[in-house]
Specification:
This protein is an alpha/beta fold. About 45% of the residues lie in helices and about 15% in strands. It has one domain: 5'-nuclease (Rossmann fold, 3-Layer(aba) Sandwich).
């Protein structure tokens, strides 16, 4: 099976870590089993690094480094993403859409309502974790 080219929005990764980091979560399973090939940009990596440093996660520097390192081992990373001209309510989501359009991903997996509201507007799907699980089981 060809892996899904997917963007894990930072919100989806963080939701899989709440209330505690759990790398046994479905996100990590999809990635490690080859179901998903994560597509990331420097912007998304920087956002994730800053987010997992928040006190609510209680992660040591070594734990944060381990999470990022493991994630990047499975991901295709791009440093310069051209603007697509896409528009959305939250300007912070534009880099996610730019990457998705440029890399022709299959899906964005997110918990962000501003992104989820855009499902159906592009050639790719924008779904939450349960929505992606449903897509997998319907195949």
């Amino acid at each position: 099976m060809t892996p899904w080219r997917a963007i894990y929005d930072t919100s989806a990764i963080l939701s899989s870590m709440t209330p505690a980091p759990n790398r046994g979560s479905i996100i990590w399973h999809w990635m490690e089993s080859g179901v998903v090939e994560p597509i990331v940009s420097d912007y998304l990596i920087d956002e994730l690094v800053a987010s997992i440093a928040e006190p609510r996660f209680r992660l040591s520097r070594d734990q944060r480094t381990s999470i990022i390192t493991e994630y990047l081992q499975h991901a295709l990373t791009f440093d310069r993403v051209p603007p697509s001209g896409a528009y959305c309510r939250d300007p912070d989501d534009i880099p996610v859409l730019d990457l998705a359009i440029w890399q022709q991903v299959d899906v964005i997996i997110s918990t962000d309502p501003d992104l989820l509201d855009l499902d159906g507007e592009f050639a790719f799907r924008i779904v939450n974790l349960a929505g992606f699980q449903a897509m997998l089981t319907s195949m």
